[in-house]
Amino acid sequence: MTKSIVKVGSAFGITEYRLANGLRVLYKKESAAPVVAVCVTFHVGSRNESKGVTGSTHILEHLLFKDTIKFNKANGNAITDYLEWFGALMNATTWLDRTNYFELIPKERMANALEMEADRLRGSLFNDTDLASEMTVVRNEFERSRNNPLELLDEEVLYKVFTKHPYRIPTIGLKEDIESSTATKLRKFYDVFYWPNNATLSVFGDVEWKDVEREVLTYFAPIPHSPHSIPTLTIVEPKQKSARKVTIKKDMGVNLAMVSYKVPPGTHKDYPAVLLLSTILAGGYSSRMEQHIVDKGIASEVSVLCHPLFDTGAVNFMGQCAEGVKPTFLAKAIEKEIEIIINKGVTTVELAYARERVLSQGAASRDGVFNEIRAVSESVAAGDWALAYKIEKAGLKVTVSDIKRIAKKYFNKQKQTVGLLDQ
Q1: For residue range 302-329, what is the model confidence (pLDDT) as tens digits?
Q2: What SS3 class is residue 370?
Q3: Distance of alpha carbon 202 from alpha carbon 374, whole angstroms
Q4: What 3-state DSSP class applies to 100?
Q5: What sign for the dihedral angle of Cα 357, 360, 365, 366?
Q6: Ramachandran area for residue 261 (φ above 0: left; ψ -120 to 50: alpha; else beta)
Q7: Which of 31, 46, 339, 422 has its CA 20 to 30 A from that of 178?
């Protein structure tokens, strides 16, 4: 494999490079502290799974902390022990569009972290014994999700929102697929998706590019490009033609209502207005739903999940019923607030507040290189590593007329799914 690296471009203080094997490298110099953050984002999540292998990315998240060719128990440098030895903070997460692995390390240990990440990219040695050791943890995570009322309702609503797209299946997977997992099946999945041309390496912190370049060329450049094309998702979610509803009758100690609307991918030009509208409706104490639903005793709390995804996604408004309030009544109260905006729009003051909240939350989410590198990883997953910065910048140009247009276009009955958890 050719040991070369090409600069692609720079934006928002971050520079993008590309290796001959297809690996994208993002670099940012930040000298506020003598540390370096490293993150490998694989462009594979539950979106890339099909029936029979659901939950594979999540299980592999666990297994890629097991032995690799260079880093293993026999050599006395198993991954977790090795990273903890020089004081690394580390974790990994799996979601709809991605899996990421990240560390915060003393800057002198950057090469150690890059060597390890390169080795587990293609050199993981997991087997059925390793799988068996992790299955108790995975099963417990699955059971916790089924016993969490909000997670349970969210899963059931998304299963109704999407009729074909894999977003309808929870990232943790279906129970029958989890139980039937084998190292052989997971190895096949690993060999399909875990390649440098399906990954983004980010290195942020108190380190010079020449030093990053040297180590990246040493450890990542020799890894070959995948011998096959990375599969792309061909499933297209059919247009929703009418409102949908799902009701869960289960005593879980609370009554909940969720109202969900299909919205465009994070890279769509309408997404900044979608985010601002969601913030006006349920973003904090000054939001409409907080003032008109919580303060009036209909709900004890309300919230909104608006996350940019690679494909058409959903914005979910959730409320926990106040004592004596039925979920159907709360759902109608949520719908009413949306209908008012569709008919009457919003004020310039509300829009200004929403902009400030989005900007402040964005800044907080990127406070420090460890937070920033993970935030950028989410943008990578949505299809553009600079997406979060671009959304905030585009939001400054959104007008009150844009908000009303977006409300009519996306937050209408036709694209609505209501979920009720009723004791």
Answers
A1: 999 999 999 999 999 999 999 999 999 9
A2: helix
A3: 9
A4: strand
A5: positive
A6: beta
A7: 422
Provide the b/e sequence for 4-20 (b: ≥16 CB within 10 Å): ebeeeeeeeebebbebb
- Measuring CA to CA, which residue among 275, 265, 278, 198 is closest to residue 230? 198
Beta strands 313-321 and 256-263 are: antiparallel
Structure tokens at 117: 């990440």
Q: Decide if pLDDT at 423 tops 90.
A: no
3-state secondary structure of 6: strand
Tokens standing for residue 30: 């930040």
How far apart are the C-alpha atoms of 89 and 215, rounded to whole Å? 20
For 160, the token pair is 């109704």
Residue whose entry in the numeric block shows the structure tokens 């590198």: 373
Asked if residue 313 lies in contact with residue 167, where contact means CB atoms within 8 angstroms, the answer is: yes
- For 156, 290, 299, 343, the CA distances from 295, given in Å and listed in that order, are 28, 6, 8, 23
Which has the closest alpha carbon to 345: 395, 295, 423, 280?
Answer: 280
- Among 259, 260, 258, 254, which Cα is nearest to 321's? 254
pLDDT at 71 over 60: yes
Burial of 239 (0-12, 13-18, 19+ CB in 10 A): exposed
Look up residue 314 and give its amino acid: A
Q: Which residue has the tokens 């569709």?
A: 342
pTM of the model: 0.95
Q: pLDDT value at position 2?
A: 59
The DSSP bridge pattern shows strands 99-106 and 244-249 to be unpaired
Task: Indicate left, alpha or beta for 52 from its phi (over 0: left) and psi (-120 to 50: alpha).
Answer: left
Sign of the Cα torsion 40, 43, 47, 53 reads negative
Tokens of 271: 């997404």
CB atoms within 10 A of CB 81: 11
Alpha helices in 43-148 (DSSP H): 56-63, 79-85, 110-122, 128-147
Angstrom distances, CA of residue 210 to CA of 5, 9, 297: 11, 16, 59
Beta strands in 272-388 (DSSP E): 299-305, 313-321
Long-range contacts at 295-304 (CB < 8 A, ≥ 24 apart): 297/322, 297/325, 298/322, 298/325, 298/329, 298/330, 298/333, 299/257, 299/325, 299/330, 299/333, 302/334, 304/278, 304/279
